[in-house]
Each structure stands twice: as structure tokens, then as C-alpha cells.
Amino acid sequence: MKKQHIILGLLLVSFQFAKAQFTLDAEFRPRTEYRSGFGNLIADGADAGFGISTRARLNAGYTTDAYKVFISLQDVMVWGENRQILPYDANNSFAVFQAWAELKLGENTTTKLGRQALVYDDQRILGGLDWAQQGRNHDAALIKYKKDNFMLDVALAFNQDYSNPTGFISSGTAYNTTGLFSYKTMQMLYMKKKWDKMTGSLLLLNNGFQEFDAASAADGVSNLQTLGTHLTYKEGAFGLAANAYLQTGKRQGAVDVKGAYLLGLDATYKASPKVGLGLGLEMISGNDGAAGETGAFFPLYGTNHKFNGFMDYFYVGNHANSIGLVDLHLSANFKLSKSSSLMVKALNFRGEQALASGEKSLGTEIDLVYKKAFKGYALVLGYSQMFASDGMYELKGITEAAAAGTQNWAWAMLVIKPKFLSRKK
């Protein structure tokens, strides 16, 4: 009888997996960084930063004909942040990175509900920010339609917190979470169409930021609209990609946004099977100094580390409502072997608006990234150096004499993504 029960149980389990797919995988990603000018100019004589952080993720997915469920748990650990035998995580970094369910509504339509990464096009406005160990996510409801070469996504979000006992629990919907363009409400419409050699997308995004009236104690919302397009074209070894975005409305602090724009054009050429070349220009509008308003564009929720140099001097928790940016860049990608590659990139930066001194030149950055794949894991190494101009010292609030002569950053990262279980239909 026991054997029969075991066989019956195995048959039931097999039947369940025959109707569904279950996956269990993980990511282990330690990264060592040497920072001597990363994100800002370092002063002469200041000690460089050096440390190691690790991202650990556990991902579980379950798929049936009617729905999908995905849960991603993560912890970001800085080596040594917890003292020995500490009974809790001092950094409080354990989090649910993603937790969503996607329901099938029809042949071409689904809805995706919960915490999720919103990743579109080249991730200029909406991206997963995978470089950051914590990543970026959104709590939202997403309606998705896809048929042939056309897709349409509509996202809606209403954010709330429980920290105010007179807010969500009792009455009102005041949202107390602030910083880094944290929004109270969000509405997004995204459309994309593919042709033989070209793709085109349209993004309409509205973000509502919590505002408080101190006199009346009432709460309101400032709405910022971002709209634009991403276009790509490919013909043989030649490729083009273009971005054009505008911002209007009100940003955090009820500041009027007028005439804010982002324009970008990148060309790529596959010179040989082992060499790829790139040339691009990006212009981001800056603050023109008018009272009570701004013309500065901010790329909001994109993977900003991917753009404007890997040293993160611009638009990575900084450079908001500043002088804007003109970024002219040239790159080369070399395939060194079947399992290794080297990327070299040079970027020249200027302000879209002039600084108080009239200076616009900011400097030049060189980025190097080497990748090597091994059996089951990968090693990635990087080095960057900033050659600052007079404008950069003025922008960052330090004199050239007070700044270190060398501004650089180096890092090494190990990426392991084990797949523990995958049971298919």
C-alpha cells in the first residue's frame, strides 16, 4: 500500500507539472569597487573608497495556461556591515524585488499586477537599473496587448504608505515617501510597432508628486508629463537609434517645467565580425534660470548608469535642475575570443546651459569594460577616468587646486546565475 501511495503521489505531481511550468533560479553577484572620483570629484589628499557588496537573488516562477506568478527575493550585503553574531540585518536591505501575477484576459491581452520592473526600449526613461545592486521596481497594474508586430501597454499606479495614522488608515491619502522622484500616482501608455528594418515606439507618462499646503494642511499633487519616441533602424552592418522626449507640467515642489527636452542619436557599424563601432550625441536641456520655473529635463526612472559615462556624474541621484548636458561619445567593441570582449568608450561633456562664469566645457571621460565568460559564470572588469575641465570644478563646487590630480574608478564583478529547477510542460 505504501508503494502504491508513493506511485499515486508521483503521478499527481507529474500531472500538475504537465499542466504548468515551475522554475527556480538565483543570482549571486559580488562586486568590488575602488572609488577615487566616482560620482563626484574627490579632493586632493582624501582617501579613496574601497569596498565589496554582494547581491543575492532567489527567483521563483510558476506558469499555467491562465496565469503566471513570479517572486524575486533579494538582499544587498556590504561586506562587514554586520558585526559578528548580530541577530538582525543592520542595513535592513532584504527586500521583495518583484512579486507579480499576470492573468490572461484574452488571446492577445494580459494584465500584470504587483511589484515589477518596467523596462522599455533602451531604458532611457523606464528601466530596471540592473547595475545598481538593489535594482529599480514599481508597484503597478499593467494591461498588455500584443498582436503580430504591435504592442500596447497601459500602466496605472497609486502609491500609499502606513506611516501617517491620519492618512490611509483613517481618512485622506497623503503620501509621505519622498526623494528621487518618488511618485504618488502614475499613468503610462506605451505603444510599439515593428517593421522589417525599423521599430518605433511612443511613450506617454504622467507622474503625480505629493504636495502639502502648510497653511491649510491639505494635500495635493503636482503632475509632470513626459512624452516622446524611440526609433531604431538597421540595414546590414549599419544601425541607428534615436530618442526624442519632452517634459511639461510641474515637478516636485510645484516647479513649472517648460521647454524641457532630451534628444539623442546613436549610429553603430559592424566593421568586422570582431569589431563594432559607435558614434552618438545626446542633448539634455538645463535650467535657464527663470524664476519659479525650469527648462531642465530629468530622465526619471531609466537605467541612468548606462548613459553619460559610467562614473555617474550626471542624472544618477544628481544633476537635477542643473545646466543640462551635451554628451558626444565614441565607442568600440572588440570580440577578443568566443568568450571574452572589450568595450572602449570616450565621452566629451558640455553644459547645455552655461555656468555662472559663462563656462560650458565640463570634461572628458574614458570607460573600459572587459567581460570574460567561463563555464557557468562570468567575470566583468571595469576602469574609468575623468579628465575634468574648468566647468566641472565649478559645477561640483571644488577648485582645481583642491581636487585630486587623478579622478578614477575601478571595479570587478562576478556573476553566477544557477538554475536550480525547471519543469516544463
Question: Could you name the key traits of this structure?
Answer:
425 residues, mainly beta, Porin, globular
- Shape designation: globular
The count of DSSP E runs of length 2 or more, i.e. the number of strands, is 20
Straight-line N-to-C gap: 30 Å
Mean pLDDT: 92
How many helical stretches?
A: 2
- Any idea what the CATH architecture is? Beta Barrel
The fold-level CATH name is: Porin
Strand content: over 45%
Any low-confidence stretches, pLDDT <50, length ≥5? none
Element pattern in H and E: HEEEEEEEEEEEEEEEEEEHEE
Rounded to an integer in angstroms, the radius of gyration calculated over CA atoms is 24 Å
**Structural class given helices, strands, pairing?**
mainly beta
How many domains is the backbone divided into?
1
Main CATH class: Mainly Beta
The major sheet is characterized as: 18 strands, antiparallel, barrel
Task: Give an overview of the whole structure.
By secondary structure, the chain is mainly β. The protein has a single domain (29-423), classed as Porin. It is 6% helix and 55% strand. The protein is built from two helices and 20 strands. It has an 18-stranded antiparallel beta barrel. A hairpin with a 3-residue loop joins strand 8 and strand 9. It is globular, with a radius of gyration of 24 Å. The model has no long low-confidence stretch (mean pLDDT 92).
